[in-house]
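Standup notes
- HV: blocked on the assembly model, inputs below
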Amino acid sequence: MMGSIGAEMQDEILRKADVMAEACPSRQILNHVTSRWGMLVLLALLGGTQRFSALKRRIGGVSERMLAQTLQLLEADGLVHRHAHDVVPPHVDYTLTAPGRELAEKVVGLTGWIEANLPRLTPAAA
Amino acid sequence: MMGSIGAEMQDEILRKADVMAEACPSRQILNHVTSRWGMLVLLALLGGTQRFSALKRRIGGVSERMLAQTLQLLEADGLVHRHAHDVVPPHVDYTLTAPGRELAEKVVGLTGWIEANLPRLTPAAA
DNA sequence: GGAAGAACGCACGTTTTTGTAAGTATAATG
DNA sequence: CATTATACTTACAAAAACGTGCGTTCTTCC
C-alpha cells in the first residue's frame, strides 16, 4: 500500500507535532477546527447531542452545505460522532467524541475570552 | 460622528457578546484570530517581541503578503503592537499587547492540545 | 561594486471557500 | 391531496483568500 511510512517515522512526527511546521498534520486539524464554522459547531455540540437542523438553527449564518461539510471534516478527524437512524424522514444525531469534548473545552476558552473581553478590543469595531 | 450608536445599546451588545450570533462583533475578532495565520502569529509572538522577518522564518509557509496583512488585522484588533524604528533599512518590532498575551495563552491551550493529542486523531492523516 | 537584506505595497492571476438553488424520498400534518 | 419537515448532495457561480513577482530605499558584506 502506498502512502504508508515507517512506524518510527510516524512516531517521530507525532512526538514532535508542531503547528509551526507547514507539513505537520496538526496543521490540518488546526485548520479544520479553526475553519469558519468549525469552532461554532464544536461549541454548539458542547450543549449536547443535536441533530442537523438543530445545529443549523443554532449557528447563525451557516448554510446547509457548509454545515454538512464542516461536520464531515470534524467527523473524519474523530472529533464528532454521527449517528444516522435508518428512518425515512432522515434523522441524524451528532455528538462530540471524547477527544472532541476536550478540544471543545479549549475552544470555549478562546471564544469565552473573546466574548468577555470584547469591550477591551472593540476600538476596531467602532 | 457617523456610525456611533447609543451607549446603552453598545453596552447591550457587549454584555451579550455571542459568537453564535452572526452580527456580533465577536465573530469578526474570532475570524481574525482563527484565520489561517492569525493563531500562528499570536503563538510566535508569545515567544517575545520579534521583527517581521523573524516571524516570517518562524511561521512555516507564510508569504510576506499574508504575514503583513495578518499583523495589520491583529494590530487593528488591539492584540499586537507595532513599533517601527525610523531607520532606513527598515526595522519593525511586533509585540503582543496585554490582551493579546491573554488571548495567545488561550490559543496555546488549543494548539497545545492538538499537538499533544494528534495520535488520538490521526486516523484521518493515515 | 554587485548582491543581499530589511519591511512592506501593489498588481495580477490562481485557488479555495462559500452561497444559492434545486433535487430526493417519505411520513406526518391540515 | 398539497404542504411541510428531514438531511443531505450536486451543479453552478460569485466572492474571498492567497501566492508570486516586482519595486522601493538604503546599508552592510563579500
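- HV (later): unblocked. Chain B has one domain: 19-119. The first strand of chain B starts at residue 50 and ends at 51.
- Next: hand off to the docking folks.
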